[in-house]
């Protein structure tokens, strides 16, 4: 059960997929894409 991703991880994954890239998702999240 500990191998399940955290909800925040899923949120980030969904944003990356929705924005089609890490840079746009990072901008929306207010974090560095690095």
UniProtKB/TrEMBL annotation:
Protein name: LysR family transcriptional regulator
MF GO annotations: DNA-binding transcription factor activity
Residues covered by the HTH lysR-type domain: 5-34
Source organism superkingdom: Bacteria
Organism: Klebsiella michiganensis
